[in-house]
Structures are given as C-alpha cells and as structure tokens.
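Because discrete structure vocabularies remain unfamiliar, we turn briefly to a single example record, giving the amino acid sequence and backbone structure tokens:
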Amino acid sequence: MRILGLDTSGKIASAAVLDTERDLLLGERSLYTTRGHAQVILPMVTELLNECGMTLQDVDCYAVSVGPGSYTGLRIGIAAVQGLAFPENKPCIGVSTLEAMAEHCITAEHMLVVMHARADLFYSAWFSFRIHDCDDAPQVERETPDEVQTAADIIQKIRELQAERIVITGDGTEEFLRQYEASGQKKRSVLIPAPAYMRQQSATGVCAAASKYIGLHSTLPTAADLTASYLQAVNITKKS
C-alpha cells in the first residue's frame, strides 16, 4: 500500500510517500515556512508525486496529523487530505502529532515528546522502543495518551520513572529543557535531547504511524472520519 502523509500541525509543512509493501520511503518534502500552509502543502504534494513518478490515482491511502498542534494548521492539513481522498473514497488515517514525532525519532527505551502550548504548559506523551521477540522488528509503543501538562507535572513523572536515560524530542524540546533546568534539575543527568533536525514534525512519522495502524485494523477510516484533536480547547483556554 502506498501512503501519502501530510503534516501541517506546526511551522513545518511536510509531505511523504511510503510504500508499505516494500517498506520503502519513496520521497519526502519538508519546509520550515513563514507562509500559510494553505499556500504550500498542495503544490508540495504535486511536486512530490511527480518526483516519485506517481499520480493521485496511485495513492492507496492518505494519512495526516490531527493534533495536537496549530488550530489553523491542523484544519488545513485535514481539509487537504479530505479533498484529495473524497473523489475516489480512499481511506484516510488520522495520526497523533506526538506519535508521529516519536516514530521519526531515534530509538530509546523511554521517549518523551513535547510541544510547547504556552507559558509552562506542554502537549506531551510518553513512548517506548521495544523488542518483544527476537524474530520481530522493534517498534515504538505508546505509554501514555496525549495530554496537556505543566512542566512541573512532566518533571514529576521524570523523577518517578527513575530512568538512567530519557530521549526528549518534539518542537517543544528546547523550551522544556529551559524550564527543566530553571527548576533546579541537571539536564544531562537524565534527559538526552534528540538532534535538532529530528525534533520537528515530519510526514515520514505520519506515514510510519499510519502503516502501523493499517497492520492492526482490517477496516480503515474514511475522509469523513477525520477529526482534529486540539486538546487546548478544553485544557488551556484562559479564564476570564
């Protein structure tokens, strides 16, 4: 199955194509952009498919990050995928932005993914990279749901985990580490930041998460099933 994945949840606009049968990433385009995603993402898809020698008819499934992330960015990505998928009623898989970033990260037993929401609040989720059987490929596994948490709450979780090493990734890494050190913690004693180029959103991670979903489900969702997961609408709206 050839999956076309999109991520417009942050400042990166990203598109990728994954061939699950060959387990081969056919192509990816990513752009850190100050322009609106609506101006960038569809031309990016067209260019990527052309470079891969494909058309929309060759795409078997679509995938898109559905949050958390930028309110406008998420809506643009979901609308783009729905517009592409509706004509031929092709399946569409919504992927957690945090899970996609975990899939794109270096491997580690404990992975913390963070996106800065505002002030001391972060979108966060924990993942692990494990091998259950020597004959099986290792894979990223989710340990906690996507949540909005204060830096203090996340720091408490880090203390309770008592791990020797935790890899932290996501576009909120730098801000969380700043607040982590400001709280009196020693950054390098536990937290190992992923390389900067791996902390941003990536459609490759979206495709990887979607591929995993396909392997676990016999029936796939459609474009009409896509729903954004904003989180902040309930959790971080300022009180008047």
Observations:
- Residues 233-240 have pLDDT under 50 and may be disordered.
- Residues 37-51 form the longest helix (15 residues).
